[in-house]
Write a structure and sequence with these properties.
179 residues; mainly beta; 10-stranded mixed beta sheet; 2 helices; 9% helix
């Protein structure tokens, strides 16, 4: 296996717009883990065989950060992705879904805000091993402008960083409408 780099990178135009618009969640699936990326992108199924559930989030409150850990002594490299999700408003239906997420593992697709060129990007977190909730909070807030809602922290440990992906299939998924 060659470890030599193959390309350089220039400085592009200032078209990036940071933030996460939506998070799509699917219970862990061996079918998703078996998908092979093509040029760094995973093509997700569109035939209802892997139906993701869409969770809308507000920009500025939800983030994804991936750290690389590489050991020269052990000859290992892995990526740990931490997805911090904030859901505004307290409601029973969301709390029940979070309880289910807390007990299992899942695949998460993060939809980024479109950039200045109108391109929307999707990142698949936990492709091979899934991702698990490692913590969270239920917040009532104290002052009138404080957050009343839920936060969860999801962590994935993988051999590869999150892959870019196609848009997840949500054609027949039922959405929660917080009261």
């Amino acid at each position: 296996m060659s470890c030599a780099i193959t390309k350089g990178r220039g400085i592009g135009c200032k078209t990036a717009y940071a933030g996460i618009k939506n998070v799509y969640i699917l219970d862990y699936s061996a079918a998703i883990a078996a998908l092979s990326p093509s040029s760094g992108t995973v093509t997700l199924p569109t035939d209802n065989s892997a139906e993701f559930f869409k969770f809308e989030v507000k920009g500025g409150q939800t983030s994804l950060e991936t750290s690389v850990t590489s050991s020269r002594e052990n000859g290992t490299t892995f990526y740990e992705s931490t997805l911090n999700i904030t859901f505004q408003n307290l409601d029973v239906a969301t709390q029940e879904e979070i309880k289910l997420l807390n007990r299992g593992r899942a695949h998460y697709v993060v939809e980024l805000y479109p950039d200045g060129a109108g391109t929307t990007k999707y990142l698949l977190v936990g492709k091979d091993n899934g991702a698990e909730v490692t913590g969270g909070t239920i917040l009532t807030g104290a002052a009138a402008a404080d957050l009343q809602g839920f936060t969860i922290t999801v962590v994935a440990s993988e051999v590869n960083p999150p892959f870019f992906s196609t848009i997840p299939d949500i054609s027949t998924a039922t959405a929660i409408t917080p009261a």
